[in-house]
Amino acid sequence: MLGGQAEHPELWAFLSSLCPGDLLSGTVAAIERFGVFVALDDGPGHPVFPGVGFVSYPELSWRRFEAATDVVRTGQRVSGEFLQFDTWNLEARLSLRATQPDPFQAFADIAAAGQELPGFVTKLTPFGLFVEVADGIEGLVELSGLPPKGIQAGNAVRVVITQIDRERRRLTLSWPNRDGL
Prior knowledge:
Layout: H1 9-17, E1 23-32, E2 35-40, E3 53-55, E4 77-86, E5 91-95, H2 103-110, E6 116-125, E7 128-134, E8 137-142, E9 156-165, E10 170-174
Parallel strand pairs: 3-5, 8-10
Antiparallel strand pairs: 1-2, 1-4, 2-3, 4-5, 6-7, 6-9, 7-8, 9-10
């Protein structure tokens, strides 16, 4: 622990004054393998970390990405929604994705089970294929056994929506015919 209220009273007072949902702005100070530090415009600096704000990878974007640098860059100005006061690390936990509309929910508003869609295979796994059916919207075609012959990442396919789970943000897909092509 970095110390409590007695050791860093100004930082503790600032973080304690924040409410979930507050919008905080700052500059990306450092990108680490575990998250992104943000130097906030308001409030005191951090005694150890490069910023008082911290964004975990899942809170960077609604879309899937390979590296944090696909979403933000050091020195970039960002705004995030305050989630919670991390009393252990004396940080403001932030969400950048909370400030943007969820593309999955927008997709779910116009899509329906039974609908056939074109897509592209993005990833093959032992349990299924991930298929992108709209910008940033992927679903899973579960497999029992090997994928259809010749299917690889990047292939264009046709799929049918079998289930849309809004709460878990999951799209389940199936093939419209045996080979999915």
